[in-house]
Design brief:
Elements: H1 2-29, E1 32-36, E2 42-45, E3 52-56, E4 61-66, E5 70-80, E6 89-100, E7 106-116, E8 119-121, E9 132-137, E10 143-144, E11 150-152, E12 156-166, E13 172-181
Length: 182
């Protein structure tokens, strides 16, 4: 009888530990993955729909050595790779500023296109890009880019170009990071 109770206890412990490990694995699957194009670094980002994958050239980091008449584009793609059909989701783009020695001379614009199966598609209620068409002053603190949220349907890719323009007279610097949030 004692051996049967020991076996039941060991079996219960194994089942409990297996359940805990599976639960932890499922919890990690609810993080969005930000994957870089030029290297294999993978970053985990909390509070974003797990079907969204954002790809940038350099982990979302932006480091600009600004000289007079500087202009540079920064590319970012967001993909809704949900396995469910019509899995509509939304997101916001946030610029987290870590260093900005520029006053009002650094501006940005954000332009994008939406594609599905490598063909450009129209903007509509199920496909909304975040855009900033007018040159806007880059803030000295972290801020949401544009107004509103992006809405993206299953299988759609939003390709953005974030363009920085500096019209100051002195050399300056800017550092920040692009994040995706709900």
């Amino acid at each position: 009888m004692k051996i049967k109770n020991k076996n039941n206890l060991i079996f219960s412990i194994i089942v409990t530990l297996s359940f805990i490990l599976v639960s932890i694995g499922c919890a990690y699957s609810f993080y969005a993955i930000i994957k870089c194009k030029n290297n294999n670094n993978v970053l985990k980002q909390e509070n974003v729909n797990p079907s969204l994958i954002a790809m940038t050239n350099d982990e979302g980091l932006i480091s600009l050595d600004l000289i007079p008449n500087f202009e540079q584009g920064y590319e970012l793609s967001i993909i809704n790779n949900s396995k469910e059909g019509n899995a509509l989701t939304s997101y916001q783009l946030v610029l987290d500023v870590s260093e900005n020695s520029v006053n009002d001379e650094l501006t940005y614009t954000l332009k994008g296109i939406a594609t599905k199966n490598n063909k450009e598609i129209e903007k509509n209620d199920r496909n909304k890009l975040i855009e900033v068409n007018k040159e806007t002053k880059v803030p000295t603190i972290s801020t949401k880019l544009g107004s509103g949220v992006g809405i993206i349907d299953t299988g759609v890719t939003h390709k953005y170009t974030l363009t920085f323009k500096y019209e100051g007279k002195e050399n300056k610097s800017f550092k920040g990071k692009i994040n995706i949030t709900n």
